[in-house]
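Protocol step 4 of 6: structure prediction from sequence.
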Amino acid sequence: MVMLNKLERFHEQWGGYSDVIDYWLTLRQELLVDYYNIAGLSAGKKKSLSLPDDESLHRFCELLVDYISAGHFKIYNMVMERWQATGFSTNKEIDALYFRIVSTTEPLLNFSEKYGDISLDEKNSVNFDNQISSIGELLEERFEHEDSLIQLIAESLSVPPGA
């Protein structure tokens, strides 16, 4: 639930700043709720030992791909267009954060590809708990970098180049 609490605080700070950021944060919230459900976590309860049902797992995998796609193809493109229009360009800090975000993409997509359309059973779910835990860690890392990137972008767009 830590990630949802962080999201709530971040949304309080940046919600309403941009329709695109609001959309992205809504996708993140949906993704996190589904993550907690398939990971067997819910508010105030210990981890459940049962496997998620196929529908929940497939929905999570779809949301994961949608979230990553929204970041790469909507959010980042919107920022680049805005920067080009204002004459701003990236800096080392922004580039480094973006690289850290991108480094989480492949393992997240690999998980989605592996579990996106299978039925979990005893044979193919041997390491599921470890893998879903790793996905949670990757998501937390990605969200922290995205939040930092959003802050840097917002700051960069609020000051005209050369000011």
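Step 5 (inspection) to follow. DSSP finds five helices and no strands in the chain.
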